[in-house]
Design brief:
single chain, 104 residues
Length: 104
């Protein structure tokens, strides 16, 4: 059976920052905004500093107001998806599905 194109990994707080770097540079990181030890916007800033601009950061969240989307963009997220997630939208962002816009 072939390897899946996306390898999930999880971690909160500082582990969430260190994990992607320890496993090699990922092409994308998906994070919630409402995290226990630090919010997703802080995590995105740390990941952006650690991993650079080439890594796609995706916010997957119930925080869906215009202000939330603005904060996500300012923090370094390249996309902001609303819960409940439409899996096809995430797959399109990750390059595994037909091209189409994600959440506006």
């Amino acid at each position: 059976m072939p390897e899946p194109p996306h390898q999930p990994a999880g971690g909160g707080g500082d582990k969430g920052v260190a994990l992607p770097a320890q496993q090699g540079r990922p092409s994308a990181v998906v994070s919630d905004i409402g995290l226990a030890r630090m919010n997703g916007w802080e995590l995105a800033g740390r990941l952006r500093a650690a991993l650079g601009a080439q890594v796609l950061l995706v916010a997957l969240t119930g925080h869906c107001r215009g202000e939330d989307r603005r904060r996500s963009a300012e923090a370094g997220f390249g996309a902001h998806l609303s819960k409940p997630l439409e899996p096809a939208a995430l797959l399109r962002l990750l390059g595994s599905g037909p091209a189409a816009d994600a959440d506006p």
